Amino acid sequence: YTAREIDRASNRLAHALAGMGVVKGDRVATLLDNRAEQVVNFFAVLKLGAIQVPINTAYKGEFLRHQLVDSGAKVFFVQGDFASRAVEVVGPDTTPDLQYCVVVDPPDAVIDAVATTTWQDALGAGHDGPVERVAVGPADLACFIYTAGTTGPSKRCMLSHNYVVSLA
Fold it and tell me: Which of 34, 40, 111, 112 is the most buried (most CB within 10 A)?
């Protein structure tokens, strides 16, 4: 992928996320292996001033549900072969803030407890024109990552835009 291809794809996804109601400060969780869709998602979320919540792909059950609830994720991107894990925990009673799931690749189970779409349909819902600039400051949050949870429930670590830029 070229930088231009990633930029255009992340614009398409950012527009689609905006169509789902994602705005500055909303959380977007991912249960994806390290792959191009994870990179596109990262940039799309940041373009909206939203907060990226990457979840460890080994998580399932209560570990997964805890991070979705604790983060207050509004949208959840799920790799197809992890969809059965989402089915176990996603629903209005168990993940009350979650409104949408986006499934990347053919799913191993049908997620029907919330509105669900595919990666291809989400990209098709957007356009690759520039995303309207959202004012973010250095201290605004860019990402939530979680501890391993070896001594109890995973704890949220909040990373600011300043920190993310410093890492880059």
Answer: 40
How many residues appear in the chain?
A: 168
pLDDT tens profile 25-37:
999 999 999 999 9
Q: How far apart are CA 9 and CA 6, in angstroms?
A: 5
Distance CA 103, CA 92 (A): 18
The answer to whether 79 and 108 have CB atoms below 8 angstroms apart is no
Report the helix count and the strand count for the chain, using DSSP H and E. Answer: 6, 7
> What burial letters (b/e) apply to 74-103, b meaning 16+ CB within 10 Å?
bbbbbbbebbebbbebbbeeebeebbbbbb
Confidence of residue 91 (pLDDT cuts 50, 70, 90): very high
For residues 10 and 3, is the Cβ–Cβ distance under 8 A?
no
Residue 101 parent element (H or E): strand 100-104
> What pTM was computed for the model?
0.95
**Which of 98, 127, 116 shows the shortest CA–CA distance to 14?**
127
**How far apart (Å, rounded) are the C-alpha atoms in residues 50 and 144?**
11
Q: What is the pLDDT of residue 97?
A: 97
